[in-house]
Amino acid sequence: MDAQYSGADVATTAELDALLRAGPFHVALRAAIAARGLPLQRVQHHLSRHGVTVGVTSLSYWQQGARRPQRPESLRAVRALEEILHLPDESLIRLLTEEEGDHPVGQARSGRSYRSFLEASDVLEKLLVELECPPDDGLHTLGHHERIRIGAHRELLGRESQHIVRAHRDGVDRFVAVHHGDPGCVPDRMAVRALENCRTGRVHSHHATGVLVAELLFDTRLRAGDTLLFSYLVEDGTAGPSHEYVRGFGTPGGQYALQVRFDEEALPARCHRFTRHSPAAPRSGRLELPLSRHHRSVHLVEPRVRSGMVGIGWDWE
After folding, report:
1. Between β-strands 297-302 and 255-262, what pairing exists: parallel, antiparallel or unpaired?
2. What is the four-CA torsion angle of 262, 124, 276, 49, rounded to 10 degrees?
3. 173, 231, 164, 234: which is closest to 197 by C-alpha?
4. Which residues pair with 192 in a beta bridge?
């Protein structure tokens, strides 16, 4: 399926700039393709030269608004389209990630950009290779509980994680923990401390993206069907004010609970839960969370996680 454009369909530079600022995504994409005078087959050809495979039908659906790019390969295609169509960096991605009502009017968005997620994902893949971590670690998560601490200067002081896992193959003897610090963090100054039923092994990090990975070594090799409860702590406190904590899940799993506790000298104005199907998908499932003034905390519980992302965000006065 292709689309042809007459001269009247081609947006002027000013009109295209306005669409890239205000959206919606599909209208801006359609205008950008028209401005370049490229049929969709040529767009597909350029994408293939960038190592991205997307069908002409999908491209047509995207510019009609019938579908939105959400899969990792589709999101890489959107980044490539910005280059192919000579658009400003993140102009299309920003339109995808924005969702009306996510933040109060006039308040700056504080969530991570899609680019930061993509860069962190690429770095994480390399760090896992360095640790010789296979795609399947041999563990199924039955339960995962996280406690996040926010300090007096609104910084992410650290997080404590407790896992309950079951091995689905013989010989599993470690777990690789991943921590993605807030923008401006210094991974070299972070520390990973084993708390229960494990010990800290190799720790690798990447300064520019704030990604840290750490081996947690078990005292015994698990056999298929064995369960284990272990916990560890990541001490951070190296970045500026924190605004959210997000946990991503590649596959469905067991229960997940997240608690964020604030210092009594730095209480947020409001807190909310949110979900995202992928880093470039709009936020959904927004739900205001009441702050317990006595315990200075908010929490969420997912009885059974699905693939995607879930998190808690908060606004400072």
Report:
1. antiparallel
2. 150
3. 231
4. 234
